[in-house]
Design goal:
This protein is an alpha/beta fold and 426 residues long. It is built from 13 helices and 18 strands. Its EC number is 4.2.1.33.
């Protein structure tokens, strides 16, 4: 079986599974954010539920509107916080930790073999850690809160084999944009991706998180990476705190030799150029060098897709000693408090601010058009986030182009979308 099928089978106590089969699985962890105070809390109470099956298996965090930009968001936070307190949710991260999909792995809650669900579509990010992560709706969260179980349809699996090494101006974001160019937004609906191959050794954990994060943009239920030494070392440096997840889930999952796949696709990382997704779809992808001159009003570096240390280091390297044009809003949001502090210690925040950037506190912010950089009428943004739907980042007449942190930083400098001038990895 594939990696994902083995994980599903283990969680429904079956020896084998077939694509399309419906099963009921035990859930290891459920992640909830602002939706706890939005759709989840009313659904939970409407069902007449009065307890959570296991408060130690719930991870709660506020991240989309932090700090709350208006009264509506503040009320949502109040409701969510009260719910977390009333039902004794053990892993209550509050609103000062950062973005859910960065903080959860940092705290050691995503381990090989786990089945994790979350009230956010980009819960697929956790697939970078050799486990299943997938997003669910408010009613499904309420069912899990009550039973600790949820139904799934076993997905067909597409295997992606990587080889080679990223080019001198290419990042993990370009890899997933290449996949989107090839598969489109409907190329893997309710399917699973499995990522492996010799090229994995040249993809950082940060890059893997980006690829797994945007697997859902192709319609995938999950995107799971094989384990390797790189992941093993990362997990050792991010042990789970005050829980037994690192003891219970410490065995990597590999596909069996006779694993069956819908399709196997091969990608040479050397051949992927810097890419950009034009409005209004993440699969509207072309090489940056074919884009022409697109002047920008805003450059956004952040989100659960690309706000990690690797991204900030690359941006600082490109920006250092230079100045951002006054016509460009260059907004930087580290994905977590831990990253923010590390970037401060490394001097990256100072470099970015000295260049004219605006560094915000960890939050989703502009990615969802929430706050901290909402686009006005006809404004154009190059963003390291995951979606560029019409009106997502602000006014319906605004436009967002998706690109790597390297392209975002280089574009902020030039005032138009472009690639870095020098090797970002030296």
């Amino acid at each position: 079986m594939s990696i994902s099928n083995q994980i599903f089978a283990k969680h429904c106590n079956k020896k084998s599974l077939e694509p399309g089969e419906f099963v009921e699985c035990d859930i290891d962890l459920v992640m909830v954010h602002e939706q706890l105070g939005g759709r989840i809390s009313p659904e939970f109470r409407k069902l007449g539920l009065d307890r959570i099956w296991d408060p130690s298996k719930v991870f709660y965090i506020l991240d989309h509107w932090v700090p709350p930009p208006d009264i509506k968001a503040a009320k949502m936070h109040q409701i969510a916080n009260k719910f977390a307190k009333d039902y004794n949710i053990k892993w209550n991260m509050g609103q000062n930790q950062g973005i859910c999909h960065q903080v959860l792995p940092e705290k050691g809650f995503s381990r090989p073999g786990m089945l994790i669900v979350g009230s956010d579509s980009h819960t697929t990010t956790y697939g970078a850690f050799n486990c299943i992560g997938t997003g669910i709706g408010a009613t499904d969260v309420s069912i899990i809160f009550s039973l600790g179980k949820l139904w799934f349809k076993i997905p067909e699996v597409q295997r992606i084999e990587f080889k080679g090494k990223l080019g001198s101006k290419v990042m993990g974001k370009d890899v997933v944009l290449q996949l989107l160019k090839d598969f489109h937004t409907d190329g893997a609906i309710y399917e699973a991706f499995e990522f492996g191959g010799l090229g994995l050794e040249n993809l950082s954990i940060s890059a893997r998180m980006t690829i797994a994060n945007m697997s859902v943009e192709m319609g995938a239920k999950c995107g799971v990476f094989e384990s390797d030494k790189l992941l093993e070392n990362w997990l050792k440096s991010h042990p789970s705190v005050e829980n037994d997840f690192n003891k219970k889930f410490n065995k990597p999952i590999f596909p069996t030799k006779d694993a069956q796949y819908k399709k196997i696709s091969n990608y040479d990382l050397n051949e992927i150029p810097p890419l950009v997704a034009k409005p209004f779809s993440p699969d509207n992808v072309i090489p940056v060098e074919e884009l022409g001159t697109i002047e920008i009003d805003e450059a956004f570096l952040g989100s659960c897709t690309n706000g990690r240390m690797e991204d900030l280091r690359v941006a600082a390297k490109i920006i250092q000693g230079k100045k951002i044009p006054s016509s460009v809003k260059f907004i930087i949001i580290p994905a977590s408090r831990e990253i923010y502090l590390q970037a401060l210690n490394e001097g990256l925040i100072e470099i970015l601010i000295q260049a004219g950037g605006v560094v915000e506190y960890p939050s989703c912010g502009p990615c969802i058009g929430g706050h901290l950089g909402v686009l006005g009428p006809n404004e154009i943004c190059v963003s390291s986030s995951n979606r560029n739907f019409k009106g997502r980042m602000g006014d319906p007449t605004s436009k967002s182009y998706l690109a790597s942190p390297a392209v975002v930083a280089a574009s902020a400098l030039k005032g138009y979308i472009t690639i870095p001038e020098k090797d970002i990895w030296k």
